[in-house]
Amino acid sequence: MSYHPVLLAGGWRPAQASGSFRAENPATGELLPDEFPISAWADCETALAAATQAAYLLRQTPPASIARFLNGFADRIEARKVELVEAAHAETALPKAPRLAEVELPRTTGQLRQAAAVVLEGSWALPTIDTRLNIRSLLGPIGPVLIFGPNNFPFAYNGVAGSDFASAIAAGNPVIAKAHPCHPLTSKLLAEAACAALLESGLPLTAVQMLYHLAPEDGVRCVTDRRLSAIGFTGSRAAGLKLKAAADAVGKPIYLEMSSLNPVLILPGALAERGAKIAEELAASCLLASGQFCTSPGLTVLIASHEADNFIADVKARLEGASIPPLLGSGVARNLAASVETLRQAGAELLTGGVPLAGNRFANTLLRASGEAFLAAPEQLQTEAFGNASLIVVVRDAGEAAQVLEHMEGNLTGSIYSDTRGGDDPLYAQLAPRLRARVGRLLNDKMPTGVAVTAAMNHGGPFPATGHPGFTAVGFPAAFRRFAMLQCFDNVRPHRLPAALQNQNPHGSTWRLIDGTWSQQNIPS
Amino acid sequence: MSYHPVLLAGGWRPAQASGSFRAENPATGELLPDEFPISAWADCETALAAATQAAYLLRQTPPASIARFLNGFADRIEARKVELVEAAHAETALPKAPRLAEVELPRTTGQLRQAAAVVLEGSWALPTIDTRLNIRSLLGPIGPVLIFGPNNFPFAYNGVAGSDFASAIAAGNPVIAKAHPCHPLTSKLLAEAACAALLESGLPLTAVQMLYHLAPEDGVRCVTDRRLSAIGFTGSRAAGLKLKAAADAVGKPIYLEMSSLNPVLILPGALAERGAKIAEELAASCLLASGQFCTSPGLTVLIASHEADNFIADVKARLEGASIPPLLGSGVARNLAASVETLRQAGAELLTGGVPLAGNRFANTLLRASGEAFLAAPEQLQTEAFGNASLIVVVRDAGEAAQVLEHMEGNLTGSIYSDTRGGDDPLYAQLAPRLRARVGRLLNDKMPTGVAVTAAMNHGGPFPATGHPGFTAVGFPAAFRRFAMLQCFDNVRPHRLPAALQNQNPHGSTWRLIDGTWSQQNIPS
Q1: Which residues are CB-contacts of A304 (< 8 A; sequence separation ≥ 6)?
Q2: Among A75, A151, A201, A369, which residue has the least CB neighbours within 10 Å?
Q3: Are B390 and B402 a contacting pair, CB within 8 Å?
Q4: If you average pLDDT over every residue of chain A, what do you get?
């Protein structure tokens, strides 16, 4: 049988395979024609050895070369846009336009180019210099990084092209990408573009490697291997927690994005003032990409009232009237059905939907629970129903709302809608600090589903949304810092220092904390 | 029986004790007169509940009040200097002068005052503002922090006064300190000073709490309690790993400083040029505080030569001729003897010392192993012998040196001595990148035992020296960032933003990344 080759140790080569697989057309359930290998441990071994060498070479590579690679990679992706969109559509059933061609692909190339600009500017590493003691430090490369990409963004979070990839390379590290088995051909095309860009940029060819699929135990073995320095993972909580346990046991940084309900709290004044408009926003946000966004609003909290009941009826009607595209894969549909069942068992009432439909689809689903029910089973009622389903929790009063927020797990986002005339402000003051402590991004009067790729973005949050509340997966320069270690140089001779720590500011552009003051100046020699 | 009270929920009160203990005079082994409680879980419960409330109050406390507390605390410590030095000397046997009175106490007050200045300046939180999208973020308070202090620095790393404490408070978090049972009276005096400073500063009185001692299982239970947000720990690897496992299982940030051999690599040119001077530096560094520093040089690597043999003989003679003060406690002496025995069993030859002496002392100890022996048992030969013992590994050649470095665990520091005329530079180029990847602070021509409290310091490093290579325990502002979470405010109304993210720069002093450029300017409203 002929498989697609893997990208290892500087080139495409036949895999040492333990088996093979084909991706599924989610809309029909039929297997796609291309056959891909499941790599055996021998491929991981090759990747780890090559990445170790690449890490030493990359430490000597100037930031300009890394930036050239990132920009060139973006160009190469654009040059193959038609092919990429075709492949991703076949493998994910996501619409070619606007989603894949006009939103996700430009976002991906935009991320790579933003990362290139931030690498060149250089301040991301927080270079810090104490001239009197001649102690200097910065955030420097951590070493080989393994990146697991998710199923829901074939371009923008792909292990070989997405934000984790851009961050790890930008920080000066080689990447071993583990593609998601839902979209292997898309990943292969992206890896080909990366390869071409490597050749042109002067980076070691071993700086980027890719495997399509692995046995779970080999994934764990890679994570614990002493040659690997850090891990990026986007995917399910179950898989993420297994990798986290393995990484934790050997004290290795692992950055996970696992699950999030993205609670939306709608205060009474807002409901009275503009309930219909918010209902429209909530329904639209829930159904974006069939709810298969990490920031999909899975849990809304309302204080019981006549307006709250009207609001719920309105959202229900909107969900019932909306179209139902296929989900990303048959696994997603199965998990969604199981999660909705868990919510019902835990005391949530099914208002609409809850049933699988032909063509790998699931009826748009809305559930309702009381604050009392939530507080009786907070863990079960925070089960993530990844897909087009959402739960509304109706609490008795502000005090119960506070209790619900205090029992909330860590989330990527939390939104609060309040009236525009300040009537909700006392309630906001009481509840916002509780939500603030449990989310990475706090929104006002806005649904969480737009994740802007910008410096101030935080696409992160407390456990179990991620593994560490200090970091973000989206937004440069902050996202780079996940794949860096703090490197101090104490009395190190000038010619041995990294360029960013030498007396001369490398391009004049880098901000450095010199003797307590941020500055772009050179240090007099 | 009358115990000293604990500092809980805003004041001194009798402990809910499961037992009691007395500290030991390390020089005589006799128990000191004061009786201290071992807190039962009820005290932890009280502390966690009070810290939760304190966390909400601290979020509304202006940075100026936090700075006032840190400065006032430093003043109060100085006012009680004689008493503090007396207590610490009785409990640790460390010399009153210069060590306690002239070095460690001023370092401690200096840390608190530096932290105050950095809080006021405000840039540590990396405020980031995208005006076009109105997305703003900063590193904000993470919530209640539990700090475990170590035995070896009764002031500068004390859970209720040291660098972890200053960092956690500076970042806006309440602290629950777990004092080290080796120096409870010192800790009580420090906590009294903290209390007095709280009263004057306007901080909630519950912002600082302290327990003297806990059952290990209650420590673990605290770590996993949902009301606790982060943990700082300095101590033994065994205790640290237990707490780390507990924190990891619930996805909670824990910053550990556990153990470090601080390898010193002396290249042949340096040995030929100034071997005697380096031998003097090494012996002095090994014996500083009887080797009871986290940065004590526990492992030296030499390439075999006649000069190397002379160097070893020189170090041995210096250790044999040096005085031998008592160790910090009988536990330290027992562990040191056991570690030296482990090293011998693993193939290290005892050159001198290796025997316990009267008065809780241990003979100054030097061991030697070949590179081959090291590579045959790298784990055992990296056993930390905390105290006045050190191992020299003599490798065959540069290739074997590279292998030894590649088998090195994570360390706080790594030093390389090279000749002053560039003869060692090729060897440096080959070996330094390998050491760089395994240490937090790389030194040239300098022993690791001085840890300057300065912005560029990194007192951190890869596992198992710490739990995460991106952070430092010493040096502000970087050390603050351990006890912070990334907080994004997306479309949040202006009056609800933290001061550092409002259009007006709070004091005009804070550097903020505004639309990609670092600036101290206001944003036009």
Answers
A1: A394, A395, A396, A397
A2: A75
A3: no
A4: 97
pTM for this structure? 0.97
**Look-up of token digits 């340096």:** B270
In whole angstroms, what is the distance from residue A255 CA to residue B348 CA?
40
β pairing state of B6-8 and B11-13: antiparallel
Residue A33's alpha-carbon distances to A30, A36, A90, A185, in angstroms, are: 9, 10, 11, 10
Min Cα–Cα distance to chain A from B473, Å = 11
Q: Which of B182, B195, B222, B294 is catalytic?
A: B294
Strands (E), A142-287: 145-148, 175-178, 208-211, 230-234, 254-257, 264-266
Q: Taking residues B373-398, what's their average pLDDT?
A: 98
Catalytic residue list contains B222: no
Predicted confidence (pLDDT) per residue in B274-317, tens digit: 999 999 999 999 999 999 999 999 999 999 999 999 999 999 99
Best B53, B486, B510, B518 residue to mutate vs chain A (most A CBs within 10 Å): B486
Rounded Cα gap, residues A176 and A230, in angstroms = 11
Instruction: Answer for the pair B157, B165: CB distance below 8 angstroms, yes or no.
Output: no
User: Distance between CA B490 and CA A411 in Å, rounded?
Assistant: 15
If you compute the radius of gyration of chain B from its CA atoms, what whole number of angstroms results? 24
Instruction: For this complex, say whether ipTM is above 0.95.
Output: yes
- Nearest CA among A485, A488, A415, A481 for reference residue A446: A415
Angle B155-B158-B160 from CA coordinates, rounded to 5°: 110
Give the three-state DSSP class for A291: helix
DSSP helix/strand/coil, A17: strand
B488 has catalytic annotation: no
Residue with tokens 């916002």: A432
**Residue B316, C-beta contacts closer than 8 angstroms, at least 6 positions apart:** B351, B352, B366
Dihedrals φ, ψ of A140, to 5°? Answer: -115, 175
What is the spatial distance between Cα A441 and Cα A457, in angstroms, rounded to a whole number? 8
pLDDT per residue as tens digits for the range A291-312: 999 999 999 999 999 999 999 9
- What tokens appear for A18 in the block? 């333990």
Write down the catalytic residue from A257, A384, A400, A409. A257
- Going by pLDDT thresholds of 50, 70 and 90, the confidence category of residue B28 is confident
Residue B56 and residue A433: Cβ atoms within 8 Å? yes
Six-digit token string for B245 = 């496992």
Structure tokens at A415: 């939104």
Which CA distances in Å does B256 have to A232, A473, B352, B412, B457?
22, 24, 33, 12, 17
Query: What confidence score (pLDDT) does residue A1 get?
Result: 58
**Which of B224, B225, B458 best tests the A interface by mutation, with the highest count of A CBs <10 A?**
B458
